[in-house]
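Summary for the funding panel

The consortium committed to producing paired sequence-structure records for every protein in the target list. Below we show the first two records in order, beginning with the earlier of the two.
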Amino acid sequence: MEELKDTSIHHTALRLAEDVKTMKLYGNLYKMVQKLSCSPEVDKDDMKQTLEAAIKSNGLEIEIRNVIYHLIRNSVKSDTRPTPASSDPLNYLRRAGIQWERRVRKSLNSMCSESKAQLHGQMRTASDREEILSKWDELSTYQIDLSNYRPVYAPKDLLDVLLSLKGPMKQDETDFLPKWEFSHISLTVKNLFELRVHFSELLRNDNNFGDWSVTCQKILKTRHAPLCQQALKKGVTPPPLRGALWSYVLGSHVEQHHVEHWEALRQSVLTNESIVDKLVFKDVQLTATNDDRYFVFEDVLYQIMLCFSRDTEISQLIQVEFTNSAKAKQYEGPPCGFVPFHGICMLAAPFCYLYDNPVSLYYTFRAFYIRYCHRLTTINTHPQGIVSLCLLFEKLLQTHEPQLWSHFRELQIQPIRVVFKWLMRAFSGHLPPEQLLILWDLILGYDSLEILSLLAIIILSFRRESLMQVTSVENIEAILSDLSSVKVLPLIQLTLSRD
């Protein structure tokens, strides 16, 4: 058994070593090791021991450990399985994901045809290029006609598709069982007890903020990503240190190759225009510009989202279930690999509170989107995808708030309809920024989006009395429209500590 274990570790190490060689930072790491090997710290007669000691004493070991940490975390990106279609109970869900992707891309292509615009861009005129360059830091003053453009899709459109999903019926189903919107989907989700175990560290009563701020500073000095992730689990992250902690946890520290890539994206925006640019401007104006908490970031959001839409590395880092079958008509998509939806810029807006430098902001947002947010906007079978989160919400509501559940059913209102926008945008634009950032601390600390479904249930639970007194969707949404009084950490701690 030990031999098998050693062999497995050996092969894993070889695979990781090969993966590191394909990364852009490999060249820099290799040069640093070469430089150390030629330094007086390394004895050529004892190369292995002295080189290892030099790597450790010069802080390079931590950097290498962080690279491996992020490589392992991101190695399982796809939720596809080699299960034969005939025996896969989730095959219909995978097909639905592909059909949704086609539908969205088809809508974008149709919009291109209607407006006679180019999807992948066309050269800007010299005057337009000069104007957008001169207004790069004040893009809110850049004049562009958006009257004929609309979002390709909104959260409601995705929800309607999810609610229409029909999977294989279970043989033991009867008319006496409750008709849940997602109960027929064979995905495994946690119950409240399992959530308590997963988030158990939130229940530790150690919230001395002053001492914790000093501790977080010490953790940052170690530059060790797993320690930074552990620090976020408390939910009391000192605001001045949050940006640095997130950068380590997401592996988004800016290196020279990042700066070069950003500049290439920026140049692409300055020299070429596409229909996606119009959608970006439209989205920012419909959402962030009209939000009292984010309108001041309008200019930087234009920069971030315009570059984001052109970033081909995103499509390479996210494995999308989109078939390349020659039998199916293909529809072109933006360079980033997916079509922007109504409200996508609100996933970037909270990062404006963390970083003054747009490059640092961009790469941390990009890493957050790649690791988490893209699962909220696609139909997928991932344990923390939007379908699983809807199912988790539904089961928690039915099990732990039966009165509310029955009230919704009697009114023939689907409960998921009143919280879906919270889930799809991870509460951005709904919670106050300081509370939203605490929630996202917990997402990063526990590497879990399940906290979104849990918080949605908590909010409904604490407003149960008001919800039980109304009988229309409009009134329910009015009760839930203002979340400014919600305190994320105390509410979650109180719920998890209850018997």
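The next record, for a separate protein in the list, is shown here:
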Amino acid sequence: MAGTCIFAEIYDENTNVYKYYSDGAWNVSSSGKSVPIINPTTRKTHYKVQACTQEEVNKVMESSKAAQKLWAKTPLWKRAEMLHKAAAILKEHKAPIAECLVKEIAKPAKDAVTEVVRSGDLVSYCGEEGVRILGEGKFLTSDSFPGNERSKYCLVSKVPLGVVLAIPPFNYPVNLAVSKIAPALIAGNSLVLKPPTQGAVAALHMVHCFHLAGFPKGLISCITGKGSEIGDFLTMHPGVNCISFTGGDTGIAISKKAGMVPLQMELGGKDACIVLEDADLDLVAANIIKGGFSYSGQRCTAVKVVLVMESVADALVEKVNAKVSKLTVGPPEDNCDITPVVSESSANFIEGLVMDAKQKGATFCQEYKRDGNLIWPLLLDNVKPEMRIAWEEPFGPVLPVIRISTVEQGIHHCNASNFGLQGCVFTRDINKAILIGDAMETGTVQINSAPARGPDHFPFQGLKDSGIGSQGVTNSILMMTKIKSTVINLPSPSYTMG
């Protein structure tokens, strides 16, 4: 069970509240308050976490700053060694962490285990990649620029930024946390984690794995609490030197307040799937199911709108409907394909999009059905641009189909969105695929496959309101460092001797 065995010290048995992590120890907040975590399936409080104060945030920042100075002097190979150790511990204890994911965010049990294992692999890969790219620098000579002689040597190296604030989302609270933690640590930074409320307990368990690996006191911190009380205080704190955020509209507000702090942000998408007449419709249907309905559509890279050529639309909708009918619906403990969405407010938002589409004449391929936070999978055909579902991100198991008469119409709809995370195109003609992909204003285009963030070492970025900067192991490591130049000034050009 979560909170037992090696994880016992992260739980306060006197109050039944999970502790927060700072200065190498598990602590109870002086606020005396807690934040409830609602089980999406039962809609009842399942866990509680500490409601930390602003003063506790200040103390965390002080210890983070001090720890980072020492950590930056730790040999690169030693940093990597410790990441490998943390990864092994994380994978060894995948079961209790996965259990938290099932209870907190209704992630199907098998997918919860996969997330933890994938996270361990990411941490290990980060250690290996960091040793390679951080161990390299540049050597420049002044006489390569016009008008200069060889009187200056420039040594270029990568140095850490300082304190990195990491804010992951509810849907991958472990994987998207370590995708920020591991690059920050290998690069020589300290790390302050503010986990999402739904997913906080899984994140605390994950942090304990780093604690068990023996990282120095103060280097890693995990602050829990209400965003209304410590959210802005954290993101605007003068001790923060970098912010890595994954989530929704909150990121736009953070970017406006962050000032000169480097930002890495992924803020969602309305990923379009363009289907041409010559596409393999069986392949398309399989990818629409995987891309649109896995984890109940609660993924930034989920297929969010299908733009299909009219001539093959009927055939494609028929194939997708046949697969939708086979999706299992129910609790995450039973490994169902469709599980409850994360909160009642999310379910209400999704229902609002569905009702708007119904009022405006969309074709319902299945009966709309909801029980609490559980929404049955729904394909909406003949969706028109005036419907909200054509543009807004449902983050649920509801997928709109828009029939198009030209490829240009599909590209236009994709590019008219304020999002630009990923998109995909299905065709047997590689020339068309490349031309369409180049025209789509998205950070990534998938050819003959549904959108996906991974593998985790691939670059991952969005355009427009979908984000700032690029992620992926290498890009994250580089983003969490800065260039430092050391210039050696010679008394005379080097080639005058001898």
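Regarding this second record: The chain has two domains: 8-266, 272-447. The radius of gyration is 24 Å.
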